[in-house]
Amino acid sequence: MTNLQVIDVTCEYRKNPLGIDVKQPRISWRIQSDTRGTMQIAYRYQVALTEDGFEQPLWDTDYTKSDQSIHIVYNGPELASGTRYYYRVKVWDNFGRESEWSDVSWWETALFEESEWKAEWITPNPAELDPLTKPIFLLRKQFGLKENIASARVYATGVGLYELYVNGERVGDELLAPGWTSYSKRIQYQTYDVTAQLCGNANVIGVMLADGWYKGDLTWEDKRHLYGDKRAVLLQMHVRYTDGTEEVVVTDTTWKAATGPILYSELYHGETYDARLEKDGWSNADFNDADWQSTVISQLSIGKLVAQENSPTRVTETIHPVSVFVTPAGDTVLDMGQNMVGRIRMTVNAPEGTKIVLRHAEVLDKEGNIYFGNLRSAKQTVEYITQGEGVETYAPRFTFQGFRYVKVEGYPGQEGGLSLEHFVGEVIHSDMEPIGEFECSDPMVNQLQRNIVWGQRGNFVDVPTDCPQRDERLGWTGDAQVFIRTALFNYQGGQFFTKWLRDLEADQLPNGGVPFVVPNVINGDSSAAWGDAAVICPWTVYLCYGDTRLLEEQYGSMKAWVEYIRAQGDNEYAWNTGFHFGDWLGLDSKEDSYFGATPNELVATAYYAYSTQLLRDAARVLGKTEDAAMYGELLEKIKQYFADEFLTPLGRLAVSTQTAHVLALMFDLVDGKRRERVAHDLNELVLENDYHLTTGFVGTPYLCFALSNNGYHETAVKLLLQDTYPSWLYSVTKGATTIWEHWDGIKPDGSFWSDDMNSYNHYAYGAIGDWMYRVIAGLDMDETVPAYKRIRIQPRIGGGELTHVRAAHDSMYGKITSAWNITHEEITVEVEIPANTTAEILLPNADLQDVKEGSAVLTALEGIASLQETEAGVSFVIGSGSYRFVYPNKRGLNPVFSRDTKVIDLLAVEKTATVLEAHFPGISNPHGVLASLRTQSLQKLIEHPMSHSTEDKLDAVLKELNALEWELETVEK
To answer: Cα–Cα distance between 520 and 602 in angstroms, integer?
Structure first.
């Protein structure tokens, strides 16, 4: 077998997708090679109707000269609905090698046209079963089939949430189906393979149907029935026999309905389950449904039916409680050890009618009691009433909770202590593939990265929510746009954002305005930095995954947003009208205000410029030359207005907030000497605040980028490593395992920020991850060639306490790694570059003659291009492969060894303090003592890492020692 292989073949981001309605699906693949510098020069792609039918393929590209290996569009004969298509790929490379065919993969189409739906929406007869009743509905249909079934597919959806059963078995493992879309315009359906669950005689399809997002409680305004007031289901099963005939089973008025053991189920409030009311075997053929109610056709105002777009929501991990304890208030509480989103699965053996109550919360108060205040009206309560017939296992079905702690009431024998093995946490979120890694020498930063990832998992539950615990959980556009680049590094989010952006476009207003939340369920729209998600998000998906189809699809929405801004007020180059969130939660706000001090007009105009720039760039990518020219001109005029309005004649920003300076720098609103002045002033603002930030939602994501990219990287690193309020690591010192909404969600004295808005799982400030990956680790791309086709590895080594950093990202082309390590003697940089890509490498502070790769000097390395030495270091271009570069640390990079908050050794500080108190009396050799103590102090810092607060004390002491030495020298002179 050749050492050139095609692997990881996908269709529309998925491996073997079942039920897609894309008429020209795109496939992607990766190349595995043991030879450095491998590039694809051609591919061949075949599609067949059977797994072994490639001798007479449906479509064959033949030998196609191209280096493209992602999003290759199927251009064969028109696809049919409900059909499986098999495909395989081979490639040729620049070394003259031809790969074997890839393993055979497939995609299966769903229903392309709504006319193909023969089913009707059905709901229980309202004359027999109150549509507003709280218990969930059970619906069933019994039917017979012939023998010799070849295949069977169910296409199903529901409003609100449904679960599917066939002949007593749960079908699939998806949760919260069909997901949350803008129901009045779009609704997803799912495809299930039920071939193995059918038999040739009597069969039953069963459906559980709950309120969910469609008609349940939504928002803090206690709203219900936002989309409709009747639950309903739509289902169609296609059964194909081996003789080629087909039979279709559909939802119609022959179905029957009842209620079951789930008495209540709400996304915010939890679920009540009475096991005594279970209808054993309700989805089996031998169940007697004579007393069930009838069903009727439901005339719903439902949008277009679309096949599943997003990654399904699933249980992706199980975690076990780490402890159980009794609070000072006397509550028995489980600690999961991690703030998570999902549910508790409980096992119990208790007498009939035993009621067990689980109440979920995120944190404990300073007295050690479980804290429910920040949930607002959300109850997050699960109640289970036992059947009393042996061991029972239960987990709620149509709800999810955000929690670390669980208050347990009524569990039998809990007075003597709960057994932890009876409880397990099931983590629930959209089942995206994890593709990002980051770790470094600082354990607190590593915890921050874990918090970023857990925050994303907890808030990517079909839509990008702002929090998973209180009565909100909405798709805030501003949160999504500031975090999307971080999100797409850590998880494969192509499907996730494709679906959400289609809902954004669907809910976009006729005038181009964009709602605050998507799907849109609250009043209000078109704030700067929030509505800009319409432009920023599709552009970011394009950058990370090279998805030009989504960019083209969203282009009209992007353009409509910019034109909406342009039409506001009486100056088309400014945005100085309307409501804006501004620098939301900025710490420079007035007392008792959520709005930061940066003027709304500055924020709005800056974002106007940024969205216009991205729209211009999208037009260029899509070949829309007239638009590119028009929006290029508009951008220059917006920039000029910004300069006229917000810059002084000497080039200083007239607004002295950190966020104002950050936006001016990040959105390229200043250049030349003015840029240098603004960057200097930003650095001074951070220094004046003792290396602390004052930024809110708008400024925080870009703050460290603005510093690092403009000559103040050391300041940016100090900001990251700061662990006193306000800082990213402050919450880590308080035990956070997810990102907080407020910098001081728990204050230094243990008290809380206001109950009104205090989530402990709120991903927005986790946007710092993007800077950690791209700047500290240096794993980035040339954005003119998206999807990491041309990689940039430019680590920022030094500038703080970090001594090693590693980031890895599974790109569309394969795994990229950038890692560095620094000692007093040498610097090591390790990189991994996937086949069919190239990488521009910059080894900082290196001299060309000193760099080695393996045992060879860099200048002797084969396959290297554009090799040059600059003030910044050594730069060059390489092809695929794994590399290890080593060179002396001789340009003055001085590693400071990392701290660890677990060890705080005050010995050196105490000894130094003794000298300071005594000053010089009685010391025969003050110079020697001072030098000795300084050495001891620094050695202690290396051997026993200290917290920032201790190091700050040590720094202060050492500064005083320097002053005393100078004083001593002056006296002696």
So the answer is: 27
Q: Is 274 a member of any domain?
A: no
What would the two tokens of residue 671 be? 């250049």
The model's confidence at residue 954, banded by pLDDT at 50, 70 and 90, is low
Residues 691 and 607 in one domain: yes
257 three-class SS = strand
Q: Quick one: DSSP state of residue 504?
A: H
Contact between residue 119 and residue 207 where contact means Cβ atoms under 8 Å apart: no
Tokens of 71: 């999003």
Residues 6+ apart with CB under 8 A from 741: 466, 467, 585, 757, 758, 759, 760, 762, 764
Number of structural domains in the chain: 6
As to burial, measured by CB atoms within 10 angstroms (0-12 exposed, 13-18 middle, 19+ buried), residue 925 is exposed
**Residue 862 C-alpha from the chain's centroid:** 39
Boundary of a domain, candidates 739, 756, 776: 776
- 271 lies in a domain? no
Given 60, 87, 109, the domain boundary residue is 109
Contact 473, 216 (CB under 8 A): no
809 and 921 part of one domain: no
Residue 56 shares a structural domain with residue 11: yes
Query: Cα 793–767–580 angle (5° rounding)?
Result: 135
For the record, the structure tokens of 295 come out as 């069903």
Beta-strand runs (E) in 391-466: 392-394, 401-409, 423-430, 436-440, 460-461, 463-464
| Positions marked active-site | 472, 741
Do 424 and 467 sit in the same domain of this protein?
no
CATH code, domain with 858: 2.60.420.10
pLDDT (tens digit, 9 = 90+) per residue, 622-634?
999 999 999 999 9
- The first and second tokens of residue 34, run together, are 């043991």
Burial of residue 832, with CB atoms counted within 10 A of its CB: 0-12 exposed, 13-18 middle, 19 or more buried:
middle
Structural domain range at position 27: 4-109
Report how far residue 495's alpha carbon sits from residue 478's, in angstroms, rounded to the nearest whole number: 20
The burial of 704, by beta-carbon neighbours within 10 Å (0-12 exposed, 13-18 middle, 19 or more buried), is given as buried
**pLDDT tens digits along 433-479:** 999 999 999 999 999 999 999 999 999 999 999 999 999 999 999 99
Residue 27 and residue 47: Cα distance in Å, rounded? Answer: 11
DSSP 8-state code for residue 586: -
Task: State both tokens at 737.
Answer: 């395992």
CATH number at residue 684: 1.50.10.10
Identify the CATH number of the domain in which residue 220 sits: 2.60.120.260
Report the predicted TM-score, pTM, of the whole model to 2 decimal places: 0.92
What the block records as the tokens of 527 is 């704030």
- Which whole-number Å values give the CA distances from 358 to 328, 409, 672, in the listed order? 18, 7, 60
38 Cβ contact list (under 8 Å, min separation 6): 4, 31, 93, 94, 95, 835, 836, 879, 880
- Flag whether 303 is in a domain: yes
* Same domain? 405 vs 479: no
Record the tokens describing residue 844, joined without a space.
């900082």
Residues 129 and 69 in one domain: no
Return d(Cα 664, Cα 607) in angstroms, integer: 10
Determine, yes or no, domain membership for 898.
Answer: no
Distance (Å, whole) CA 526 – CA 513: 5
Which pLDDT does position 592 carry in this prediction?
78
Peptide bond into 519 cis (omega under 30): yes
Strands (E), 456-498: 460-461, 463-464
Closest C-alpha to 548, from 68, 915, 900? 68
